Amino acid sequence: MNIPLRVSLKQLYLGDTIEVEYVRQTLCVNWQECMKANQECQGPGVKVRMQQIAPGFVQQVQQRDERCVARGKMWSSNCRVCPDGQTQSEKIDLTIDLQKGMYPGEPITFEGVADEKPGMNPGDLNFIVTQESHEHYHRDGDHLYVTMEIPLVDALTGFKHEFEHLDGHKFVVNVDGVTECDHVMRVSGKGMPRRGGRGGYGDLFITFDVDFPETLTVEQRNGIRKILGGSGSSDEL
Questions:
Q1: Are 161 and 149 a contacting pair, CB within 8 Å?
Q2: Residue 58: its pLDDT value, please?
Q3: Closest alpha carbon to 7 in 136, 100, 125
Q4: Under CATH, which number does the domain 1-28+87-132 receive?
Q5: For the CA atoms of 7, 13, 15, 20, what is the dihedral angle to 10 degrees?
Q6: What backbone torsions phi and psi does residue 221 show, to the nearest 5 degrees?
Q7: Which of 17, 51, 76, 199 has an alpha carbon within 20 to 30 A of 208's alpha carbon?
Q8: SS3 letters for the chain?
Q9: CATH 2.60.260.20 region(s) of the chain?
């Protein structure tokens, strides 16, 4: 049984303990008293009967029959000791240990906790980690990615910016010199916790999107040309 476990990027960064209530089907306490012999039953849900197709020729026909619970055993309908049928509902409490840095699609398994059926061992219950999208950060493996819009003046003169990480701690990024549009800056150790016993953290990649002004006054254009030495003709007469 696979169940999606929706968690936030912050939970995957910090790790978390999640308490859940799961409802499963368990065998009726007296289920064995409700079985009767039937040689056509070859196993759980499997029935084989002999069919004559011509004089002297007999063929085995296999078909599904949910009343078969084991080899040679069939469920007896309307059994008094199990009036609700083979199984009954049971609520169980489970504690999910969400490890730091777990990946989307990774299973958290509880062995033998799935539904029970006569003649069969219960399967495993898998909670599949499903990561919710984040407002700012995007994850790829152990790395985080974020896009930051900066004004043209900062792109030309340099700047510093304070970021807030997933766990709430703040850190400052200093950028000196000119920043090109779509420039990507790598900040070591500011990504996700690494899995598999490697320790440490991945990296943070910041993409800078330069916000160019829509219009400039004559004075602003002339001032920029004087500073940067542009080759265009001056607006001054």
A1: no
A2: 75
A3: 100
A4: 2.60.260.20
A5: 0
A6: -65, -45
A7: 199
A8: CEEEEEECHHHHHHCEEEEEEEEEEEECCCHHHHEEEEEEEEECCEEEEEEEEECCEEEEEEEECCCEEEEEEEECCCCCCCCCCCEEEEEEEEEEEECCCCCCCCEEEECCCCCCECCECCCCEEEEEEECCCCCCEEECCEEEEEEEEEHHHHHHCEEEEEECCCCCEEEEEECCCCCCCEEEEECCCCCECCCCCCCECCEEEEEEEECCCCCCHHHHHHHHHHHCCCCCCCCC
A9: 1-28+87-132, 138-228
Amino acid letter for position 70: A
Per-residue pLDDT tens over the stretch 22-73: 999 998 888 888 989 999 898 888 888 877 777 777 788 888 888 888 888 8
Q: Which residues pair with 52 in a beta bridge?
A: 58
Instruction: Specify whether the CB–CB gap between 207 and 144 falls below 8 A.
Output: no
pTM of the model: 0.77
Distance CA 132, CA 129 (A): 10
Which amino acid is residue 163, in one-letter code?
F
One-letter amino acid at 12 equals L
> In Å, how far are 74, 155, 186, 193 from 177, measured between CA atoms?
81, 8, 16, 31
Confirm if 1 and 125 have CB atoms less than 8 A apart.
yes
Give the count of beta carbons closer than 10 Å to the beta carbon of residue 121: 8
